[in-house]
């Protein structure tokens, strides 16, 4: 009986050994002895690589020939492009945002010059947003830059956007406000922390800092709710980039910039960039969107870190598309802003 049991255990051990998952990959990313290491699961990484492949491209279109503004009517942005560049970009943008509907998603195909569809108004502003990011936020996007595909990936609405939290009210005299807790969401890595920390840090100007330099009661006057909000947004950063805390921080001194990695500085610029996106481009478009595209409080969909990153430490793993669309890297527009409306020069 013992021999049979021994053979059985050896067989089970052999089978389990053959089914063992690949070992995690670990790379030191900071000071020795501080635990600053990037740890990746190769199986998950392989799935992410597939999800971050570049779309097909026809290459760089020639810039010579008549300008788009001379050939087509009512071209309010990118009219300085050649006809070839303009039409190539329109086809690419259609594939990035509305591959099933085609041109009709933004245009009245009986009269392309009309502005009757809200999607056309929004797309113009999004083109300008791309140019602004690539021209003015190089401290975050570097030379890699972004295009419509970075966020949309073939979807009308990027898969990762957020709306303001619908107030839950008071749950009971002794329970108080839930503060978005105990309602796990993917946006904050399914933690029980505040599941909508974005308004506070990616829309409003609030520093995400709660660690005091001195002990209580005078050194740190931040509330527990403030602490929960900060940890909620930090969980979001970690989940969005597919990294752990030590990608940016030295865990022995989280708040000390001198002991943090360079990525922390780049992330800071990213936070400021997202606030610019939400306040300069998205919020002003609220009235342009139909009611079914708005959130529970009537607000427009807004960006956070996962909108672009989608689980990768660099969107599309750092592969740039700007070589084929260099005009998205230039702050050029044939419109000027007057109040909240755009008018042709």
Give an account of the 3D structure.
- With 345 residues, this protein is mainly alpha-helical.
- The protein has a domain at 60-159 and 310-345: Photosynthetic Reaction Center, subunit C, domain 2 (Orthogonal Bundle), CATH 1.10.468.
- The protein is 36% helix and 5% strand.
- It is built from eleven helices and four strands; from the N terminus they run αββααααααααααββ.
- A two-stranded antiparallel ribbon has the order 1-2. Strands 3-4 form a two-stranded antiparallel sheet.
- The longest helix is centred in the C-terminal third of the chain and has 21 residues, at 262-282.
- It is globular, with a radius of gyration of 24 Å.
- Mean pLDDT is 85; it is low at 333-345.
Number of strands: 4
Instruction: Note the beta-strand portion.
Output: under 5%
Which class of the domain at 60-159 and 310-345 in CATH terms? Mainly Alpha
Pairing-aware structural class of the strands and helices?
A: mainly alpha
The topology string of helices and strands comes to: HEEHHHHHHHHHHEE
Mean pLDDT: 85
The largest beta-sheet arranges its strands as 1-2
């Amino acid at each position: 009986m013992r021999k049979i049991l021994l053979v059985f255990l050896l067989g089970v051990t052999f089978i389990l050994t053959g089914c063992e998952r690949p070992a995690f990959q670990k790379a030191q990313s900071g000071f020795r002895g501080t635990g600053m290491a990037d740890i990746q699961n190769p199986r998950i990484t392989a799935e992410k690589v597939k999800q971050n492949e570049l779309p097909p491209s026809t290459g760089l279109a020639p810039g010579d020939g008549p300008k788009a503004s001379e050939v087509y009517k009512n071209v309010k942005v990118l009219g300085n492009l050649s006809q070839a560049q303009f039409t190539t970009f329109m086809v690419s943008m259609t594939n990035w945002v509305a591959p099933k509907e085609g041109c009709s998603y933004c245009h009245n195909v009986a009269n392309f010059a009309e502005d009757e569809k809200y999607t056309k108004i929004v797309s113009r502003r999004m083109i300008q947003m791309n140019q602004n990011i690539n021209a003015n936020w190089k401290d975050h996007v570097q030379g890699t830059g972004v295009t419509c595909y970075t966020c949309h990936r073939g979807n009308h609405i990027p898969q990762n956007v957020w709306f303001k939290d619908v107030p839950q009210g008071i749950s009971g005299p002794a329970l108080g406000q839930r503060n978005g807790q105990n309602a796990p969401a993917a946006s904050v890595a399914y933690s029980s922390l505040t599941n909508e920390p974005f308004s506070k840090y990616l829309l409003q100007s609030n520093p995400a800092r709660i660690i005091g330099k001195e002990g209580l009661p005078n050194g740190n006057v931040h509330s527990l709710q403030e602490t929960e909000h900060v940890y909620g947004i930090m969980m979001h950063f970690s989940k969005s980039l597919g990294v752990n805390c030590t990608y940016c921080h030295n865990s022995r001194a989280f708040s000390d910039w001198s002991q943090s990695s360079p990525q922390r500085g780049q992330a800071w610029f990213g936070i400021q960039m997202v606030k610019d996106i939400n306040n300069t481009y998205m919020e002003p478009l609220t009235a342009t969107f139909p009611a079914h595209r708005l959130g529970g409080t009537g607000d427009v969909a807004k960006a956070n870190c996962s909108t672009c990153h989608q689980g990768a430490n660099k969107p599309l793993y750092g592969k740039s598309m700007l070589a084929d669309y260099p005009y998205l890297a230039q702050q050029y527009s044939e419109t000027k802003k007057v109040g909240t409306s755009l008018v042709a020069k």
